[in-house]
Amino acid sequence: MLNPFLFILSAGHLIVDLAQGILPILMPLLAEKLSLNYFQVGTVALAFTFSSAIIQPAFGVFSDRYSMPWLMPLGLFLSGLGLALTGTVTSYGLLLFVVLLSGIGLAGYHPEGSKLAHYVSEEGKAGASMSIFSVGGNIGFGLGPMLGLFILGFSGLDSIYCAIIPGALGALVFLFYLPSFKKILAEKMPARGEKPSDVKGKSRIKVGSLTLLILYVIVRSWMHYGLVYYIPFYFSDLGGMAKPEYLISTFLIAGAVGTVLGGPFADRFGGRNGLLVSMAVSMVAVYPFLYLNGKFIHVFAFIVGAALISTFSTTVVFGQRLLPQNIGLASGLLLGFGVGMGSVGVTLLGAIADHTSLQFVMNIICLLPILGIILAFTLPDIRTGQPVSDTGAEAAAEALQQQ
Fold first, then answer.
1. Contacts for 268-271 with beta carbons within 8 Å, 24 or more apart?
2. Residue 61 neighbours by CB under 8 Å, 6+ apart
3. Sign of the dihedral defined by the CA atoms of residues 119, 123, 127, 132, in that order
4. Which of 40, 203, 223, 332 is deepest in the core (most CB within 10 A)?
């Protein structure tokens, strides 16, 4: 039976990631209000993910050294506060500031939340447990556009201040459970100064595998964030769709379904196979999603969303197994840096769209799964309950040592 705290952590993950789903919905309105071009839209996305994701490894390092469960309620509050302030900004610089503030809230929640989810997971069910934690974020991301449209329906950007309500309520709940979280971390966290027993060669192998895994996550994030941020522009301009925001919700909610399926799949068939299947299905479905406009467009949006995000929890568990003594750092790298670097891609894609066309950018996104498949093939085959295995890397390390 799964630990009930997993569902509380998942609910917090849902609330904190609402901001990721709401912000893309705000961008067309903010772009009109502040006269932003595609590159500036991408820069706002970069600012948000820099503060919410790229700096997460730093939070992860501190999370490994110290018990900081108070970051979770603080993160919940800040994520909503920054988003609520977007309706009050009068300049591009102020917009970047409040977006950075919201992002810092996400950065504070994720390493502590995923670390705690790891510690309360049962033996042999790491993938399933992380799926429960991750699916909250995916649902929050998916519900964000609908919540954003609901809030904006009152008085446009003037009513976005209501976005602070979920974060504030979530912060109060987490403050109530804070003593329990502290107790769990006190019992489970390794003693300070404890060092891993891995040999030097094994460490080099794991660092190489971790680098490849992060590159895979970057490719996945380029596809994911590129679609999320530019679907409203693409389908309204080229597809003539009146409400493309609902297509984003279909795409993101499908990602939540994929996350629930992806973790158990990886527990049974191995993380590498999960990554391969994810990219293979994405490669087949993304082109018809973007170019076969019609009644099946929501079906293809669901397939792409489910396949692409099915490995969200898998890559986190993969990283935690590669860095078992640095759970917070591994979580920060995979949840934060890897995903955040994907938003660098959004900025670059925006710049390309400004100089070519948005359709050309969508063609690039259609080709990215090929790179993802290549990266997945290079990773070790990690199965639940088995030690990390990287036969090719081990052979290369041994050959170097003999020279």
1. 268/384, 270/381, 270/382, 270/383, 271/127, 271/311, 271/314, 271/315, 271/317, 271/318, 271/379, 271/381, 271/382, 271/383
2. 326, 328, 329, 332
3. negative
4. 332
pTM value? Answer: 0.71
Task: Give domain status of residue 73, yes or no.
Answer: yes
CA dihedral 293, 298, 300, 304 (to 10 degrees): 130
Q: In this structure, what CATH number is given to the domain that contains residue 326? A: 1.20.1250.20
**403 in a structural domain:** no
Q: Looking at the domain assignment, is residue 222 inside a domain?
A: yes
pLDDT tens for the chain, 403 residues: list them: 567 888 899 999 999 989 888 888 888 888 888 888 878 887 887 788 778 877 777 777 777 777 788 999 999 999 999 999 998 888 898 999 999 999 999 888 888 888 888 787 766 666 677 778 888 887 887 788 889 889 998 888 889 999 999 999 999 999 999 998 888 888 776 655 554 444 444 555 577 888 899 899 989 989 988 888 788 788 776 655 656 667 877 887 888 788 888 878 887 888 889 999 999 999 999 999 888 766 788 899 899 999 998 888 888 888 878 887 777 777 777 877 776 776 678 778 888 988 888 889 999 999 999 999 999 999 887 665 454 444 434 433 333 333 3
